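User: Could you check the structure of this?
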Amino acid sequence: MHRPPNNNILNQGENASTIAGGNPNKTAIFGVNPNPTTPNLRDEIARVYLEESNLTKTVADLFMNNTHNITWKYYDHLVRAGNYKAAVSSGRAFEYWNPFSAKGSTYTASYSPHFVNRGQIFTELKTGSFPEVSWVIPSFPISEHAPANITTGMNWVKQVLNAIMSSPYWNSTAIILTWDDYGGFYDHVPPPQIDKYGLGFRMPTLIISPYAKPGYIDHTQYQFESMLKFIEWRFNLQPLTERDLHANDLLNAFNFNQNPNPPHIVPLTIAQLNAVHPFINLVRTID
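Assistant: Sure, the predicted structure tokens are below.
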């Protein structure tokens, strides 16, 4: 049996299910960036959200407390140790594309070095310092989120994929590419009611790996927690919640006994690269 992938690339949006198996319960109905009409209600929602976020255990906590020293990075923007109060005051703690930003532990000396600029992924792929688990988050202009240019977003993804495929890490990597929205307001398939919260609209997901089944459409029911479950399976970690405990783990999409798929690089033109580069390390503003 071939060795399972070392690196899991998760390109995800604001959904905290991929890092914690769920959202803070009391504030989930308001969203991460609430804007109620009364300041008192807004302040109370913010207070409860931060309180619950700090009580919510994440997969990063499992990594940090694991004796096997699992390496991980969140490629989005830098986080400075000791900067939590400033992040709360500025609104950075409430950004919905990085749910880690709400946790005080993120701004500690042990956690903060794991949060780096997204462009650093290209350097670390070349220098041999690419971690075992990564999340790669786009800035808004390359996110494919309306009204951003979806072609520019697509080319950003191609640049990341090309970099991984051209690196020594390709033969031990699983890339899980997904979105936080699917581009519409209608799904003809009713969301499964797996618990009192249920699931939402279906999201597209692509699994790209030397050990992904070629040309395979997987009809297994997956959810955001499935990516978390896959990480837990790979590193023998305990589940965080009932959601990731009972989620399917993506394994049906892989065949670790097959001959590894070769990389399929789609080169970008100079014009395409120039269109993407200004937005790679752009820090997302708070809406």
